[in-house]
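Worked problem 6 (solution included).
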Amino acid sequence: MDVGSIAAALTLLRTESAPLTPIHDYISVRPTLHILHSSSKVNMWNITHVDASTPSQTSILFGGMPGKESVGPTNALGPEGAVYVLAFPGLGYIKLTDVGSKGNGPGSWKVAASGSSTNWTYEGGGQAKVSVDANGNYTISGGSNTISGTVTKF
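Solution. The predicted structure is:
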C-alpha cells in the first residue's frame, strides 16, 4: 500500500470531532485499517508440512524475490515472481515459482513446480503439504488440487 492510500484511509477514519491521531493508534484501535493494509498478502502461501522419505529425511527451503532470497524463509511465500527451491540432500530438488493468477488449474493462485506439468493451485492463503519418496516422486497437496511429479536429481 502506498503513502497516498494510507493517507486516504486515515482521512476516511477521521471525523470532525476527533483529530487525526498517529497511525499506530489506528492500527491498535481500528482493526479495519490493519485488514486494509494486510489484504495484499491474501495470495501468499506457505509450506506447512514436508514428509521427506529420502536418504537424509530432511529438506531445505531457500529463495524468494530476486535480490531478496533467503535460506529457510519464515514469512509467507510469494508474491508473484518469487522463486523457491525445496532441496532434499542426497536426492534432488523441486523448484517452486509463484506465477500469480496465470496458468492452468482450478484455484485462483498458482505455483509452478519443476517436474510436474500441472500447477499447484490454491485460494486465499495456500497451505502446501509436500511428500517425497526415496525415488524422488513427490506430491503437493493442501490447495485446490493435488499435483505429482519427480524431483530434479542433483
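Discussion: Confidence is low (pLDDT under 50) at residues 1-41.
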